[in-house]
Amino acid sequence: MTHSDVSYRRMSVEQRRAQLIAAALELFAHAAPEDISLDDVAHSAEVSRPLVYRYFPGGKQQLYEAALRTAADDLEQCFAEPQTGPLTRRLSRALDRYLAFVDEHAAGFTALLQGGSVAETSRTNAIVDEVRRAAAEHILLHMEVRAPGPRLRMMVRMWITAVEAASLIWLDEDRQPPVRELRDWLVDNFVALLTATAASDPQTAEVARAALALETAEGPVGVLARRVVPVVSGAAHLL
Fold this sequence. Notes:
Elements: H1 3-10, H2 13-28, H3 38-45, H4 49-55, H5 60-78, H6 87-104, H7 106-114, H8 122-142, H9 150-172, H10 179-198, H11 202-212, H12 220-232
Helix pairs in contact: 2-3, 2-5, 5-8, 6-10, 8-9, 9-10, 10-11
């Protein structure tokens, strides 16, 4: 009896599936899906190729979608945060988790969001879109909005798109600027989008006033305000 056969007997179906998915995720973290074969996954998991097919009869595509589903669940949880304290602090903690995921799964994250992978299908696209929508719902929940209007919802989804784009550029730029600077800049971008939208949308204005009331002078909004005032002071003649 081989070592793999002994290992197989000792693992339940769910444990084996989880092992194979974990092996695939580790490989996808360092290479695009089209560059990973089932043999690579089998070797990483120390099992035979037929065993991989036993649990994923649909082959690499089925395994990829299962791995993507697992990664998507992890990404969705990045924005799950206790509803206490200033909004910018919650966003900062969420971004810390999100950017740590991006850093750890660089190649897979890039292939996933840039598209063009041979493993890309309508199902994989739907999983990615679900992550974006879940992130938006988490943020709206933090803003205590039960029925967001189109302007507010669009603003939040625009910011999520910006976070994704910035993450890809950050990887392409050899992870520069430092991750903490990137996080703080993305929080500043959220505040800027929120206040700009509030200027023309009553619902967003109400939400912004409630959110900003919890901020402190030493927090991200206070620091941003002090930086912005000198920049815009030259436009005082427009008021």
